[in-house]
Amino acid sequence: MADITHWADVVADEVLKRGNKHLVATGITPSGHIHIGNMREVVTADVAYRALLDKDTEAEFIYIADTYDPLRKVYPFLDESYAQHVGKPLSEIPCPCGEHESYSEHFLEPFLVALEHLGIHPKVYRADELYKQGLYMDAIKTALVKRDEIASILQKLSGKTPAEDWSPFNPICNVCGKINTTKVTGFDPDAETVDYTCSCGDSGTVSMKGGGKLTWRVDWPARWKALGVTVEPFGKDHASRGGSYDTGQAIAKEIYGYEAPYPIVYEWIMLGKEGAMSSSTGVVVSISDMLKVVPPEVLRYLIIRTKPEKHIRFDPAQPLLNLVDEFERLHSAEEPGSYESRIIELSHAAGLCHTDIPFKHMTTIYQAAGGDFDRIMKIVKRAGYDTGNEKCIKELVDNVGNWLDMYAPPFAKFSVKEELPVQTASLSDMQRAFLSSFADILAESGELSGEDYHNLVYSAKDPESKLHVMMAESLDVAPEEMEVNPKDLFKAIYTSVLGQQSGPKAGWFLSSLEKDFIITRFREAAEYRP
């Protein structure tokens, strides 16, 4: 590939035109399972942050969990008891499983654990805590005082005229606890309070310090100013004309006197043929689930290899193996170009495990060993792989086992039969001669690698090879008169061991089995006459 600058370094170069001190921010509302589609935002932010650090920039990286947003509706994954909580801030709603402090923590905690696995370590803020600590106090006062100017910006850029009673601040009702059913009736900048009425019938006063939150289109630019954000990725929905970035940019400049962050706009991740991932529609694969089935560096690679403005199609079934293959080929290239090297560098992160065992080979080893880790380690050692980092191998084994359980298509699965499969009754004389001769050669050989097994099978085509001659003798024909089709030989292997006519890559497969087992099984199959 030609010498190309990776998109993260292009972003960093553009950002540096704005100065040498930067704060990269990312934020997600934990209203449901934080899915692999959301991961694009966080990985994009992390990669931009790392690219800035690589250019000796003074950079920080933060993640803001929008825990003070209201619950919009009873999502498909919630029971009807949550109807009473619709409209309340997520941080003030009970946890669905009863094991976390709040609804927001129920979904946030596994996401933060997933970030650790991905080698992503931002400073984490929770919006409810920021509001309760008073971080937004000045921004709230300014927004309330300049309410008409903000309404004018929103109307001009979005084309929508705010209602007469619209306010940039949403109080939380003291009685029902909801944030989306209140209306501001007045405010006192000196006392730092806001008066409201609520559709539940209550009217009262709340503090600007935690008694409510700014509406999203004002909250975002207020956050930029309050935290000092200079770089932020966000989805294309926010980047549409008249969208929240357009209005946020104007509000930041005209109301708060702050330059909007450098925008990194990203496209959606599409789940197979089901479309864009969304927690509310249930079209989702959670990051936690994905990290059960694929190495973290491969998930990073999924995002890093594609420019943010291009959509990504992700399928956790068979296409996932192709993604892993692609990554492993790039990783093992002897002389990768600078662009490829940069992709690998950004895919790695401190603390991420890596082994030299291909994922696809491990799917064969795992199934050949029946999932038994001790047997797997013996096969890995016999195959010549580095067994020094057992922890990383265990992670790969767990990934493969989970993938087989959760997403693998039927044709990718197999099990070694403990008894000779009845299907061997259908083997031809040629196939029996092959199995018998193959077993005899193995009995005289040392340990063979996957490549050795592969080459041995294919040698049966060559009239001068030992295997071909032995097969011809068994069939009582002249070697030069015997035609051999390797496809039939592979079918004989799979039939005698798996009871089916196809299976994993034969060389890898045979090298995963004990040689004595192969010899015994092939001889049994060759001699079986029902």
From TrEMBL:
Keyword hit for Hydrolase: no
Signal peptide (UniProt feature, chain positions): none
Sequence similarity: Belongs to the class-I aminoacyl-tRNA synthetase family.
Entry protein name: Lysine--tRNA ligase
Localisation: Cytoplasm
Motif ('KMSKS' region): 276-280
Biological source species: Methanolobus zinderi
Catalytic activity: tRNA(Lys) + L-lysine + ATP = L-lysyl-tRNA(Lys) + AMP + diphosphate
Chain's gene name: lysS
